[in-house]
Amino acid sequence: MGLFRRDARTRDTEDAVTDDTSEALEPLVGETDGADDAPIDGASRTSGPWDVADAPEGVARVDLGAIHLPGVPGMELRMEIDKSTGTVSAAQVSLDGSTLQVQAFAAPRTEGIWDEIREEIAESVTKQGGSADDLPGPFGRELLARLPVRTAEGRTGHRPARFVGTDGPRWFLRGVITGKAAVDPAAATVLEDLYRAIVVVRGDEARAPRDLLALTLPGQGTAATPPVEAPTFDPMTRGPEITEIR
Question: How many domains does the chain have?
Answer without folding.
Answer: 1
